[in-house]
Amino acid sequence: MSPSPLKAFAATDPGFPALPVADLLASADDLRSRIRLCFGLSRDAFDAEVQPLLQRYSSYVHLLPATADNYFSTPAGLLNLGLEVAFYSLQGTDAHIFSGRSTISVRRQLEPRWRLATFIGGLCCELHRVLSHLIVTDEAGGEWPQFLIPLGDWLASRSATRYFVRWRPNATESRGLGVFVLPLVVPEATLQYLAQDNSIIVPHLLSSVSGQPVYRDHNVLDALVRRSLALVIDRNLQANADRYGVPQFGSHLERYLVDAMRRLASGSPSWFPNREKSRAWLGSDGLFLLWPQAAHDVQALLEADQLAGIPKAPETVLDLLLEAGVFARQPDGASTWFVLPPELKTAAEAVKLASPAILLNGVTPPAEPLAISLVCPPGTTRTTQKPTTTAPAPAPAPPPGTQFSLLDATEVATSPAARTSPPPPVSQTPAPPPAVVADLAAPSPPPAPSPPPAAAPTFKLNAPMRLNPAVRDALAAIVGTLNGPGSAAAAAPIAAGLFVPLAELERRGVQPALAGRALADVGLLVHAGRDGPATVTADFRGEPTIGLVVAPACIDGFDPAAFEPAAHEEP
Q: Nearest 10 degrees: CA dihedral of 409, 410, 415, 417?
């Protein structure tokens, strides 16, 4: 009787020992001590509040590696990855304010919950890999049910001494799967504690674990987790390159690039398909992004997030997304396409999304595709219909009493017929009688009421073209609110220029760091001193507000001296 394939596999694969959970955590004592210090808890409080999380997470991931041959591919790789990302995410909360629109007392009450939720988000950020990328079996061939029980508990119930890992071929990353096993790591009492006295902490945590953005509010928790994950992976790849050669760089960046494109598609007007000067065009043959313009927008957004390891060259971004299957190649293997949108005169280089849903799923209002095909050969130009050479038909005579417009008179006066034909004779009308002349010389009746005063000047952004498109669109929308009622204005004049609250930029999908850097690059940011911060604090609508001051020279019709100051800058 020939041995089964599983027995042959087990004979050649040493597998992983079924160690107790206490031994797993003992190998990370140094990192656990740093986490306890960062929480600022006593040993007893740490053991009661945080230690159960670490034990349950260790029991679930055990000694599983995070990847087969890339970052954290050694035994306990997923355990170490989760602990490191959780630590750096927790550390990052010291420099951020959660629930910024709440009162100080409410923020003080919710801050411990936000810090714990951010720690959990970092700890569980890669749980989905256990469900989508690998299969675990014991010595008897039994397969671990990942959705039902932690790996450590399953091994103990089977009295297993070793277990084996098989990697799924061509596995697809599905971050949303991590939500289904979150209850196996986070106790129910902890989730209830996070949800107490608020309705946003748990949704933001689930949004971060599942990879689904929160469109109505900026998710500070997820931003900290993503930044920490990129830092930890980049450091591990660099260390592996020094020790073991060159690993596969860049495979973890797909999520950040796709996430940035989705954020731009949902928050930047210049990324909504089929609009004037849009980066995205949706036709009958698919969704296309103008390239490399779209790559520059993605890079600027990720630079504002301060993520480590993000590629700088559009060619590298293109290669990564082609390899990940986000972009589609041409039938002949070419990386880019050429499209001719309605507003362009010549064909432009673009990339094609493998599916429009990658970018437009959940974006409201939904985009309507054009009824035309956008793909064209390189060098295609848009031709215009030339007028025929036949003489135009004479215009019909206007009906009696009709007055010529100024445009009609100009066309008649400048037409060839008008220049070649003699002028009509001047009619000789008799002079009015003396009585009529006397009547004309009499005092005129009271003048008609004066016309209403001229409308207020129209405010319009007039920024340089080199200003970041996302920042330009957001500022244009903010400046446009000045043309409406004062209660709807999203900005206010101060002595130095136009004060723009940071919250108004974030509401329009622009990160404040990106806006400050973009305005400073074109010389439109006031208070951007070398030694001082780019932001100022002003009294906006009766509350101290942090914002940026935009130079008035880039706003048509704006004169700070003509306004009653609505915002007062604090020293």
A: 30
**Backbone phi, psi, residue 18, to 5°:** -85, 75
- Do strands 543-550 and 497-501 pair parallel, antiparallel, or not at all (unpaired)? antiparallel
Alpha carbons 19 and 155: distance in angstroms, whole number:
9
Q: Which of 233, 228, 208 is nearest to 218 (CA)?
A: 208
- What number is the average pLDDT over the span 383-401? 46
Distance, in Å, from the CA atom of 571 to the CA atom of 564, rounded to the nearest integer, reads 20
Q: Over the stretch 65-123, which tens digit does the pLDDT of each residue have? A: 998 888 888 899 999 999 999 999 999 888 776 765 666 777 788 888 999 999 999 99
Strand pairing class (460-461; 555-556): antiparallel
Helix (H, G, I), strand (E, B) or coil at 415: coil
**For residue 398, pLDDT beyond 60:** no
Task: Quote the longest CA-to-CA distance of the chain.
Answer: 136
d(CA 166, CA 78) in angstroms, rounded, equals 15
State the Cα–Cα distance between residues 280 and 271, nearest whole angstrom. Answer: 6
Distance of alpha carbon 335 from alpha carbon 353, whole angstroms: 11
pLDDT tops 80 at residue 229: yes
Fold of 460-562: Arc Repressor Mutant, subunit A (1.10.10)
φ/ψ of 189, rounded to 5, equals -65, -35
**Pick from 39, 55, 286: which is nearest to 150 by CA?**
55
Kindly state the average pLDDT of the residues 201-207. 92
Q: Tell me the one-letter amino acid at 455.
A: A
With a threshold of 0.85, does the pTM exceed it?
no
| CATH fold group of domain 16-244 | Hypothetical protein af1432 (1.10.3210)
- Look up residue 552 and give its DSSP letter: G
pLDDT-above-90 percentage for the chain: 26
Q: How far apart are CA 198 and CA 110, in angstroms?
A: 8
**What pLDDT digit, counting tens, does each position of 261-312 carry?**
888 887 788 888 888 888 999 998 899 999 988 988 888 888 777 666 677 7
What string of DSSP letters covers 304-325? HTT-TT---SHHHHHHHHHHTT
- Token pair, residue 475, equals 């500022």
